[in-house]
Specification:
The protein is an all-alpha fold. Helices cover 75% and strands 0% of the residues. It contains 15 helices and no strands.
Amino acid sequence: MNALLAALIASAAFLTGCASGPTPAPQGEAPATSDQTDNRRRAQIRLQLAVGYYEQRQMAVALDEIRQALVADPSFADAYVMRALIYMDMGENKLAEENFLQAIKLSPNTPDFNNNYGWFLCQNGREKESIVYFDAALKNRAYQSPAKALNNAGICSMKLKNKAAAERYFSQAFQYDPGNPTTNSNLARIYYDQGDYERARFYIGRVMKSDVMTADVLWLAIKVERKLGDRAAETSLATQLRRRHGGSAEFAAYQRGAFDE
């Protein structure tokens, strides 16, 4: 399972849906009939089976379970999301998009659906379109994890070279989840590029405090300390980069003295 799909599955609304059972009808609407409730329950069971088969990499079986879930309940939006994720993993982006859109059609105000589809667009060269869906997710005041959509919007804004928007999204994400390494590392990069090295040091320091010591994080920290003139800190970080990632492109850049590439 690649990292993108793992993140999407972790955020998908179907996980809570499966745990909580059918959603009560809102006030003013007629309660669901017994048959409707039973159909949704059967669909949820099939969806849980599909997730299990997907995690075992049995894609054909997982898709068949999704098909049966939708036979039981064609309005079950969570099943369309899961099928979209499976098709993404199979490289069937057209089918994935069709299923994302069907889920959003059935449940347009579900923030995770909008966030997931936005990320799909961003990963497929459609960054400008993706921002619309991240913003739609963020408009829902009941969204329990807005930092996810804010980080995704920030990353896609960076791809669009809209650093002002990226800074705004990441700064908002920081308010919700100040310990998130993705948020902090991206803010550090933005402030480094702006020449605000003290702020860059603050955010990259938070990344390293969370024990994220990837090559790109250490390399940025080295460049920050070099700009600030702290040679002792620079040398210490370079030692860590050599020890942890001696074969990396970042360490090769350090050895060349390519601090401004």
